[in-house]
Amino acid sequence: MFTEARRRLLMLAVALVLPTTAVAQQLLEDFLVAVNNDKAADVRAMLARGMDANTVDANGDPVLFIAARGGHAAVVDVLLAAKADVDRRNRFGDTALMTASLNGHLRIAKALRARGAAIDFNGWTPLIYAATGGHDEVVRWLIVEGADVNAKSPNGTTALMMAAREGKYSTALLLIDRGADVNRRNDSGASALDWATRNGDTTLAERLKRAGARG
Question: What's residue 16's pLDDT?
Fold first, then answer.
């Protein structure tokens, strides 16, 4: 059993910890608000006060991922300067470069790559994401950087398939021109031509056939 003296010491310890916890929680909330609202100066100041550049939010998204997704280039630069882990993944396995590519943020993609962000790996890749969004500049840049044009997702889907599925005609043409295999099929047996046909995109379907796609 606690003696009265020990009980009082415990209550004092709790009283001392609670304000510190409240301050830390408020700092975290302020930090996430600053990241989400592209407040680079505030982010820099809070990093100087001890915030971690690899902080994650309640959804498991690293702050670098959040900034890259939102197109907040200045915040991305601040976080990278603070040694944020450029390849840290969120709970879905996505990296900052993947979300930058999906949303067409070329400047941010280049900044991440300059810090060593990976382009090719097992699973969904930045190129597949860029093709999904129809961001031709990002697609072109990723290929120049060495991205595998025929990289496939866990279910066998390629960048060309996603471009066809999403009706991104110019992106599909770009991928074909860069050597995408028009006859690749995913684990369900679907090809880029199948997606174009399902979408009623006769123009893309004909272009795929001219490139050698078989039905």
Answer: 42
